[in-house]
Amino acid sequence: MKHKAFTLIELLVVLAIIGILTVVGVTAFNGYTKKTMDSVIRSNHYAIKGVIEADLAVCMLNGGGNSKIERFQGATYSVKSSCRNAFNNGLVQHVLRLGLKDPFIVNWETFQGWVRAGRYVQDASAAWFGPPKKEPAYHPYYYVGKTFLSNQQGSAACDYDSTKHSSNYRAIELKTYLTNETTLISNCVDLSLLYN
Predict the structure, then answer these.
(1) Residue 148 pairs with which residues in a beta bridge?
(2) What's the start-to-end Cα distance of the chain, in Å?
(3) Is the model's pTM score more than 0.85?
(4) Pick from 174, 177, 146, 171: which is nearest to 50 by CA?
(5) What is the 3-state secondary structure (H, E, C) of 72-115?
(6) CA distance readout (Å), 118 to 72, 92, 112, 134
(7) Which strand (E) or helix (H) includes residue 176?
């Protein structure tokens, strides 16, 4: 009995179909991966905003800018900080201790590899304190979904209300770029109540 084998043309057609399906599958998978990462980045952004607003409410309930609020620092301890000083760069350590992590840093080795490669990464938290810039040194921050926190004051501050005296107006701005590096999420939290 004679067995019929596949011809070369048939094998090439099958390989071409497998290749096309692979390309389509990988493209779709990459799209879903970016959407998932963007969801985590958005979630971190609004969670950080929620932490700031909740801390502001605690300060106001306890007496305003002169009251104290607990701030997580380091691995095992917390400190009492003046409410007027609680929304500075110590906020990043506080956010990190609350479990808000950068979704792109999958493990410590990856983080250390980025540092060795010269990528401008401060820590594994989802936030960084300072002004966002589109300079090459800062560029990886946007790519890995960092949320920039910056203190602002006076009439140049975000969401400035002209009915308030500019010298008393304080705010903290949150800016986060998604993975496409063009979509920006931006929010402003008014801290003026702490200084009035």
Answers:
(1) 128, 175
(2) 98
(3) no
(4) 174
(5) EECCCEEEEEEHHHCCCCHHHHHHHHCCCECCCCCCHHHHHHHH
(6) 29, 21, 10, 16
(7) strand 170-177
pLDDT by residue for the chain (196 residues), tens digit each?
566 777 888 888 888 888 888 888 777 776 777 788 888 888 888 988 998 888 888 888 888 878 888 877 766 677 788 888 888 767 777 777 777 777 666 566 666 676 676 665 566 677 777 666 555 555 566 666 778 888 877 777 776 766 666 667 788 888 888 877 778 888 888 888 887 7
DSSP state of 167: G
User: Are 89 and 131 a contacting pair, CB within 8 Å?
Assistant: no
CA distance 30 to 41: 16
Q: Domain limits of the chain?
A: 8-195
